[in-house]
Queue: 4 jobs
Job 1
Amino acid sequence: MSSSPDDKAVSSAELEKNQPEHIDHVYSNGSDDTEDAAISFGFTPAEQRKLIHRIDRRLVVTVGVMYCISLMDRTNLSAASIAGMQVELDMVKGYRYSLVTLVFFVTYVVFQPLSTGLVRKIGPRLHLAAICVFWGATMIGMGFAHTWNALAGLRALLGVFEAGFFPSAVYLLSTWYVRYDMGKRYSVFYIIGCVASACAGILAYGLMQMDGLSGLGGWRWIFIIEGVLTCVVGFGGYFLLVGFPDSKQKSWDFLNEREIAFIIARVNADRGDAKTEPFTARKFFGAGLDLKIWGYALVFFGTTTITYALAYFLPIILHENMGFSIGASQCLVAPPYVFAAIIIYADGYAGDRWKLRGPVILFNMVICLVGLPIMGFHKTPGIRYLGVFLVTAGANANVPATMSYQANNIRGQWKRAFCSATLVGFGGVGGIAGSLVFRTQDAPDYRPGIYACIACALMNIILVLALGGFFRVANRRAARGEVVLEDPDNEGDRGFRYTY
């Protein structure tokens, strides 16, 4: 939908005047209020859809491509490992490879709260683009490391720069959409990241063929070329990213004032937290007193333990455990992630359509519980590879499903920021666990790692069932007027209900 000169001439005061009085105080689990917002700003339903799709193309695709690069950069160690890195850097002894993988997550977890707070201060365009360029430069440096200690130090620095991207991107997306638009958007965002996981092995295999060029090993070119690509994406991201809908920062004429005011009114009609609240330590850190936030974080921890274990060790498992060649092990990583992308989008579509979140997570974890024993215990390599499909799909589909679960059940800008930081922070802790579950001494069967992943899937099922039970009781009490949900200051916002 194009912007007309008349649209741009509408003043903020006129928009505020035309906004319905009830718009800041009415919330629903449907679309009636968002339709009211559309009518009040002169948008037909068709124009509304075109506007939302324009935001999708600009926002979801841009952060998705940047996340694709992020995921590729943090998980390319396994490809470099079987391309000669472990031998050249003397990493085959003890826990050296596992240490190099996990130091990334130490700084990744520690620096997330700071970075999530900064994104509101300096804006997502500058913040996300800058850290993307910085971690790309770090990746290039990894290609010139001559000791495993130096590589570990660069991985720790990579964690500092990448710490702010994922929680900030999740937070940014949540500010633009109503609750039952988020499932599909988070799914597409993460699917683009899965493309990285699917293509990373194939790309790494191609870059390995540069072995000997300029006197550098093939594994070094994996880091160097992917680092250069990251820097290019970072520079491009500065021009394509947009700010928060209520931000005063320009977004390169992406939306006019009338369209932005409509988006803000639409989010306010759904959950009432589109406008930025003044920062206070009580509002930000006080969110930590809400036990539900730690429940969401633990679900994310259990999920990412499995996803990172696959990301860091799948090529190694395919080579050592299932007997595939190095080239085949690199390329056979791709098909399970393609299958995962189908499940991810189906989850997002079904969750938004039927307004469900918890059952989607339960479904994904059941898929994992079916796939893990097949992957770990069957005697035939081909059947074990089928188990890889199920585990990869279930675990990766649970990432956007959990993001939607917490986003639908949180109100307030700073509580949302805190929740994004803790969610992704626990995801980083899951990365530490995932980098350790498949130990070198357990090769080639890696049974303890399989058991650990099964335990994580079972934990997620228990947590979601417990949270769902709490939500049902709380919603019934709110319907009777006994409590006000997600409103610690008791300001009278009584329409909010939890999503099961």
Job 2
Amino acid sequence: MIVELRSPIYRSALEELTKLSLENHFLQFNFSRYNSGERGAIHTDPPFASLVQIFYFNEEWNREWGGCLRILKDENPQSVFQDILPLLGSSIIILPSENS
């Protein structure tokens, strides 16, 4: 998977999708696994990130378990724009900005 993600073809596809030039950008890969009962902290993406892509590998997920990627409208944790279930085959691309 990492070989594919590092390929010029994939980089070109990201550029086409996002309308960003990624020519002089480096790639950083982070892998996380959360166990039952663990919570990720509310955070913003680093200011140096041009884009963030998240891949999910859960074969099943029940919304009642929590654990969704929660996109907020603003800094208020109750101001929910969208919850995204972490399901296998799903991927999210986020373009960080000064407001994200």
Job 3
Amino acid sequence: MMKPLISKKYAAHGSGGLAAGADLAKAHPDVVDFTLGDPDLTTPAAIIDAAAADARAGHTHYTDSRGDGELIAAIVDFQKEEYGVELSPENVFVTTSACHGMWLVLETMLDEGDEVMIIEPYFAPYADQVKMAGGVPVFIPTDPDEGFRPNIDVIREKVTEKTKALIVNTPNNPSGLCLKKEELEAFGRLAEEKDFYLIADDIYTAFSYDGPFVPMASLDPCKDRTITLRSFSKNFAMTGWRIGYILGEKNFIAAAKSVNENNVYTAPAISQRAALYALAHREDLQPPVVEEFKTRTFHAYERLTRLKNIRIPEPTGTFYLFVDIRPTGLSEDEVWQKLFDEAHVLTVKGSAFGESGRGFLRLAVTVGVDAIDKAFDRIEKMEIFQ
């Protein structure tokens, strides 16, 4: 009998809930697909042109394993100008996307059996990322009827001697929730009291509609215990460039560098040059991207408010809408299937983001207003929403 080819830690893993609709999207020629958080906008032409020019000028080789020196310097300047956060180049590590960054942070941070707290609902890959790094995910339930706001006492009850970190994602995927400064500071005080770290997954920073985004790393109770993940994917419509970065304490960044040298060594040079241009010209390039998705998100929200048997709060962040379909009296599986069969509309089931999300559906508003209207013109005819 042959030994298993696939390791035990990967053998049981299949596609997650976020990928479940990929094949179904091809089942009908008129499907409106709200599943993927991939902006349908092409990266701004100026970014593409600048990256192409840099490639022709010779930026086609490995960069330093921590990242392109000019990009790292620009990130340091950006953090100070935008948030008042003082960093040195040794606090920065450029990654091949924020997902790669999360893997790298967890791989560098966790010993076998360390626990990582994850607030529900959460970006679906977190749990497996923790497990693959040898850690144990510990889920923090939240109350959908309280807007999924995390309760600090519930978090405190989940802390053990094995707790290593708490992942915090705001604005949140999938709920769109934006945490308040006071809530983030409470996390920092608890982390200091109980001796664990904070992993800030700061991906949708430009999509905070109620007020300017405030990073945990800028707050006194949090700054000494926060590792930050950032990305260019959403803020600049650059998902395919696969570029992000980690901000953290110098020794941690040095350790992450050593881990990554055995993985991909360094992020793609051309993508780093694109990120450099995007960051330098953010005041011109970012607002049109943000305004387009804010317009779409609020348009889809307005269409949702016309439906019976659903609940949806006004958007405060991201370009996701997390729709409460419990008033239909049907399960999320049944409503999800009816939307696909009767309206040819694809969404993601809320339970893909943890048990607190069960009974919800997530819509990623990454299609244009015409497609949004096409979808909701069909949805409005469905009996369960009349």
Job 4
Amino acid sequence: MQNDQWSSKVGFILASAGSAIGLGAIWKLPYITGTSGGGAFIFLFLLFSLFIGFPLLLAEFVIGRSTGKEAISAYKEIAPKTKWHWIGYLGVITAVILLSFYSVIGGWVIQYLFYGITGLTAEGTSGYEGLFNQSVSSPIASVAAQGLFLFITIAVVAKGIQQGIEKVSKIMMPALFILFIILIIRSLTLDNAMEGVKFFLQPDFSKITSESVLYALGQSFFSLSVGISVMVTYSSYLAKKESLMQPAISVVIMNLFISILAGLAIFPAVFSLGYQPEAGPGLLFIVLPAVFDQIIFGKVFLFLFLALFLFATLTSAFSMLEIVVASVTKGKSNGRALISWIVGIGIFALGVPSALSYSVLSDITIFGKSIFDSADFLVSNILMPFGALLISIFVSYKMKKDLLKSELIMDSKSLNGVFTVWYFLMRYIVPLVIIAVFLDSSGLLKLFK
């Protein structure tokens, strides 16, 4: 068993929610919604989060809590003398690559927070586009900001579960909700704000295409932080007496809630000031600063938004670093701090090329993509779907059904029906859906279109 555990179920829920709520909910979901049909896309995203993401989240919880060990050791204990523990290694490798370029985006957020403090501004979307390009094309600034983001991440993880990740998550997650509520109130009081709400929440299924359906599947899948065994490691620190069902439901609800809050904070302001919701990835760093620039106390609200975005990005980064550190320390407290710094510095070095891919290394491409985009594609479109597929097969075909049942329902007969549905989804539906998402994101389905 681990030496370190969550001090409470609340701490576990907030840390797990923090892992899930990050770039996917706040940065990626709004711009994908803007380019994929608005409310109809949100409806599909909610549907798939409940019937695909939720079962996978529970599956990772079961693996970790049943063994009380980090990812690699957990698979070894359940299936000894087999190759299934390579799912754990795959998760560790994926987390390393993911954090290496994720920290670059975290660095961009830190740069923009610095702009907010120093009062640096631009005019209109074209001005902020120039500011963004200037920010990412500065090699010194990009690497320094990436390093600062990782420094904060390492410092927290090095403190351990209770004194590090849990303690910070208990502060950051409530702050995230509070800041969002403030921003939403301001956004909804703007002229023409209801047009943005209508676009975001009112479904128009005529705009749905096969591609947007698959995007919704992929978004629900990635937004819950499943597929790289992060939740296996997190749940291994949970006491045996605690229910798994309630934390899983709480994490899913919090993630969906934050996703909705992000849209309600962004789209009313975008529509109010006449910008296009289809702005793409630049919505956060280019359009939003221009939007907030035109409203009363806009600089204050932009700073608050970037602060909560940094909170969400950091809590996700904690989980990525934790799975790597835990795999080395085997969950023991001895040597955690040193290992955290060694691993973190290694990830920083690995991420430097991604940080420089918009400046001195911009001419280097891999299959036509920049270093940053190649790392993103490898993780998002190949490693995470493949890892989740293996986890779904492992849980439903390799683990004993009686063990799964005892871990999930804990002698609660009222949950028998829930277990039956979950087991059916994991055994038959989830693997097929993941295969569909994997093939499409890899571009293979296009060969048959």
